[in-house]
Amino acid sequence: SSGINAEYGGTLFGGNWCLPAVYLAGMPKCGSTDLFEKLTWHPELRGARSGKENHYWARTRIGKSANHLIKGRIAPKRTFRSYLASLGSVGQNELLIDGSQSLAWDSMGWEEWYWYGGNVSDGPPYTNAQLIHRITPNVKIILILRDPVTRLYSDYLYFNNQAYGIHENRTTETFDEAVREEVKRFRECVSNHTLHYCCYSSENNPEVRVWIGVYICFVRDWLAVFPRDQLMAVSLEDYSQYSQSTLNRIYQFLGVSKVDQGKLGVFLGTAKKANKRPVNERSKGDMRPDTELFLREFYSPYNSEVARLLNDTRFLYKK
């Protein structure tokens, strides 16, 4: 942790500043945007002035782009002062939520940016979880997870547009080819390195993010530093089907006041779903059955480990 001390040790500057009390830390394409919007409906929960995601801890503090598809250093490191200013003020009895879903998993480029000496055979010298714990050890962590097979397909189609610099015609066939190649590469990595190293390797393909669905790597890292009562894992499938009861469980976990259930029900009944799958994605259809079977076989042992660690069979994602 000498690297963490070097960056954030000591008194930075005077004044009253509030860091997030809650991190909705992951995962991408798992409904985090919709959950963030529903959570901040509660009068005691507030998002940052800059919006749901600023990606400070995982990306911009070291000069990486907030866009995961842009490699290399693209800007000066964002200052801690700038990050604090982007959060805005917090009222009495309000909890600030940082919804940067990159926080749970993104340490890509650590070989260049996280180097502080020592053994790097097991991945980065410190994780985002260790960094957050060092600075704010009493925060609450929420991870929203999804069946990793459907997460990967959604992720692959979603990031196929000009905003992300991708112009190819992605189909069920290109998806099948891409995932088989990336799974093969990942398995070769695991045969030569630790699983932890491979989950954080910068050799992972950012356009086919197979490794993000190996949730055990990241859940284990967060539980290595945060006690179980400070981390809550939510299933997107559960949240989609039982939104009101899931939100109530999260509100209880965060320690905020109970809300009027009638008003919450009306809100959920009228609110639009955020990041709903667009028409151009739906027109691609479902992935091929053989692709799905291949991915289910790949993810199955990792899902079992997550379910055991969390003591929750919902995360087995068996079909």
Task: Provide a descriptive summary of the structure in words.
With 319 residues, the chain is of the alpha/beta class. Helices cover 43% and strands 7% of the residues. It is built from 14 helices and 5 strands. α3 links the parallel β2 (45-47) and β3. Mean pLDDT is 85; it is low at 1-15.
Strand tally, please?
5
The succession of helices and strands, N to C, reads HEHEHEHHEHHHHEHHHHH
Strand content: 5-15%
Tell me the radius of gyration. 19 Å
Mean pLDDT: 85
State the helical fraction. Answer: 40-55%
Count every helix, treating DSSP H or I runs of 4 or more residues as helices: 14
Q: How is the largest sheet built, in terms of strand order?
A: 2-3-1-4-5
What best-fitting shape do the alpha-carbon axes yield? globular
Q: Give the termini separation.
A: 42 Å
Q: Major beta sheet, specifics?
A: 5 strands, parallel
Which ranges are low-confidence, i.e. pLDDT below 50, for 5 or more consecutive residues?
A: 1-15
Secondary-structure-based class equals alpha/beta
